[in-house]
Amino acid sequence: MKLSQFKFKLPEEKIALHPAKYRDESRLMVVHKSTGEIEHVMFKDILNYFDDKDVFIFNDTKVFPARLYGNKEKTGARIEVFLLRELNEELRLWDVLVDPARKIRIGNKLYFGDDDSMVAEVIDNTTSRGRTLRFLYDGPHDEFKKALYALGEPPLPPFIHRPAEPEDEERFQTIFAKNEGAVTVPAAGLHFSRELMKRMEIKGIDFAFITMHCGLGNFRDIDVEDLTKHKMDSEQMFVNAEACRIVNEAKDRGNKVCAVGTTVMRTIETAVGTDGHLKEFEGWTNKFIFPPYDFSVANAMVSNFQMPLSTMLMLKCAYGGYELIMDAYNIALKENYRFGTYGDAMLILDK
């Protein structure tokens, strides 16, 4: 497959800038792989496609407020700092992106907060935009993290062209977010409300939780036409014994196993054994899934409507079939589905 095969015209007004009023009341397109049938329902109707002992696999990563704005010493120039990950807890070292990068050099100090209460020093240049910052903070680590995060805001993706608002603190996070480490939200999980998950439990549906800390690589442009030459950024992931037990028992029974989102699908395809069973895993993955690809674990998938040329769209086409999914996207555009992180969802069923 070539990069250009995943290009389509997406009008700006089709991208959702705000979430639906209620999590489970966005729209849901249901795509049946075996027949090609497409249905249009509400997200809360997803319940109707699953039965007792079926399993949903969720990503319980938690997004932290990664976008900060500061000022450079002496010049006072405004600098955007995007926290990527903590490199050293004791030394307060963080891997970050800075913008505009050309203004920031080793030795520069950056000041954050209305009273400049948080100070960081640039100690390394790692890439053209990347830097290592050392935050100059004397208190305990948990106090430092609390103070740092108080200065940050939800890291909305680049296609949501607006500043973060108070609603984003709650809505740019799944209700089951638990393990902190993501700089963007696993979007398919945003549609699940407490009420819907309670109804799923009552119906006898089981939940398994894995963790993949979603990184900015999900939004990085692919700059090669030949997809076999593209390298994904590595993301940290964890699959525990309990998740393996729940998923493998469902597979052995012949029940449906639904991957909620592309991050879940990449995680379980990384951690699958040769026997098709999920294995415990703790580490990093840079798995890039695009057509053709044989999936081993899930036989259903929930996913949002992603951007053109994105790795998430490629994975979805690998799972649902290129022609069927691209046709479904054309229908979504005609039917005014909302695209992006805060947009509507698609359920793909094997049978």
Protein architecture, described:
- With 351 residues, the chain is of the alpha/beta class.
- The protein has 2 domains: 3-63 and 169-349, 3-Layer(aba) Sandwich (QueA-like), CATH 3.40.1780.10; 67-151, Beta Barrel (Thrombin, subunit H), CATH 2.40.10.240.
- It has 7 helices and 17 strands.
- Strands 2-1-17-16-14-3-12-13-15 form a 9-stranded mixed sheet. It has a 6-stranded antiparallel barrel with strand order 5-6-7-10-9-8.
- Strand 1 (27-32) and strand 2 form a beta hairpin.
- Helix 6 crosses helix 7.
- The model has no long low-confidence stretch (mean pLDDT 93).
* Global mean pLDDT: 93
Considering DSSP H and I runs of 4 or more, what fraction of the residues is helical?
10-25%
CATH homologous superfamily caption of the largest domain: QueA-like
Q: Specify the CATH class of the largest domain.
A: Alpha Beta
Quaternary organization: single chain
What is the level-2 CATH architecture name of the largest domain?
3-Layer(aba) Sandwich
Uncertain regions: pLDDT < 50 for 5+ in a row?
A: none
Radius of gyration: 21 Å
Helix/strand structural class: alpha/beta
Catalytic activity: 7-aminomethyl-7-carbaguanosine(34) in tRNA + S-adenosyl-L-methionine = epoxyqueuosine(34) in tRNA + adenine + L-methionine + 2 H(+)
InterPro entries: QueA, QueA_dom1, QueA_dom2, QueA_sf
Subunit structure: Monomer.
Keywords: Cytoplasm, Glycosyltransferase, Isomerase, Queuosine biosynthesis, S-adenosyl-L-methionine, Transferase
